[in-house]
Amino acid sequence: MKRKLNAQDVPEEVQTSQKALSQFQSLGLDPRILQGIAKEAFSEPTPIQAKAIPLALEGKDILARSKTGSGKTAAYILPILQSTLKRKANSPSKKCTSALILVPTRELAGQVTKAITALAALCSQDIKVENVTRNEDEKVQRARLAALPDIVVATPSRASSHVNSSALSLNDLAHLVIDEADLVLSYGHDADLQNISKAMPKGVQTFLISATLNTEIESLKGLFCQDPVAVEMDEEEKDSGSVKQYVVKVAEEEKFLLAYAIFKLKLIRGKAIIFVGDIDRSYRLKLFLEQFGIKSCVLNSELPVNSRIHVVEEFNKGIYDIIIASDEHEVLGDEGKKDEEKKHGKGKGRGTKEDKTADTAESPVQPAKKRQKNSKTSTKKDYGVARGIDFRNVSCVLNFDLPTTSKSYTHRIGRTARAGKTGMALSFVIPANLYHKHKPTTFPTTKHDEEVLAKIEKSQAKKGLTVKPYHFDMKKLDGFRYRMVDALRAVTSMAVKNARIRELRQELIKSEKLKRHFEENPEELQHLRHDGELRSARIQHHLKHVPDYLLPGGAGKKPEDVGFVAFAKDERQGNRIRKARMANRGKGRGKKVLGRKGNPLQTFKGKGK
């Protein structure tokens, strides 16, 4: 009986299905790869794997549309491993980089590298993989690439940089993968892709993996592919019906009230991802929940990449239950660009990096001057929460702040109900007449929540899905309101700023000084926690306890009458300083302090002439 580490790193017995192995064997894979598949306990090929792997083994270019969590990573890894082993068997003395995998974010690069290492565990002596997205010295990365690893995983900007410096040679490249291709383009990597295409030899097999097949992907197809085969998974759209979608229309401050009640009363079981609009908002919500003893961790682009990867890994293991993710690098898509043109006029945007990079994604072929200008923004947008990151076993996605487009909404709710499981998406919407009624909790993008909700409902209706209203009985939460108000008052702007600085300082220490130590001692990483209290806001310990009479079921109950309770402190505890003063006064020591009602004429002492 085989044993495998589960999500909590505890060995457990795993029964490998012979039927599943026979299905992978029918694909013509090497026995060592099949053993790696058995070690990972894959049940059977997913639909995209069953369709794409045979085509890839025939050497055809593939243009695949598949959502995250459908097994698309293994769909291109397995053919690349098979081809690499076959090449090495024919010419064992030749060393070269034969596969380049481009991903939009460092987090996704780490996940892909981990998947390759796991599937190639029994042929690790023959296949070497390097992830060059890590925050290392350039000389260290050049040394890694000088060893000519078989597979290189990189972001387009990092790969383009190494190609320009001749550290990465693409002369013998046989496979090119662009994972989350639409996201790569929206992040403004078009100039980097153009540079890589010039350095590639002809006849390279290309995999373009994307969640959508739009005009931008078509332009990318013309740049890299030769008569590609399109693999679209129509049944996957129907499978997304396992996500139950609800919307709650509330006032601005009631968002915090509902979040407090939902997690304190455990109305949501399992793990949850809370999406907020920006980084400040994520820390404000974390500090607010801390007031009630609700632990959560923050995930945003400001944190070091090592910390972000570790947060995701610990969340997937079940160590954390709540992640507050800021979606500040939201992918707008065509809908977002049209909205901005309507509001500000054609060619004008909000002035943010998101809009600038989205505009540059229209075509990967641009004049040299324009590409140089856009390349500055591409290196800064190396992060994304709603797409790319592999969150596992997420029960609920809570849109605390509604995204600005229906496309971004679809990507967010795609974090749950994956691999055949069910999930729930709950969104808070601010009605237009309630916007800016509570200034401390106002967020700018919520002004257009109702307009965005209409577009979301329309886009989901096209897929045969509905977004249902969820009616909370807010009267039953009246007992929680005064506690919510107290907690919000404690979370001031200065508290948020200090929390942000403190968390960043802590994560930098963990990420930089201990990075090499943890590479040598990976088991010690589990002792690092990211959901600890920041304690930058005023602590109110009484808020952590919820009396029974405040619960919705007992809202009408009155606390039990226990008679008169004096305000004096417990005599057993006492007050040491007060007792000492009383003892000294009894002995005639200490200062005699006049009370407010004392008569100064009676105590006045003076000497006449």
Automatic annotation (TrEMBL):
Motif (Q motif): 22-50
The keyword Methyltransferase belongs to this UniProt entry's keyword annotation: no
Catalytic activity: ATP + H2O = ADP + phosphate + H(+)
Basic and acidic residues bias spans: 333-343
E.C. numbers: 3.6.4.13
A cellular-component GO term for this protein: cytosol
Protein name: RNA helicase
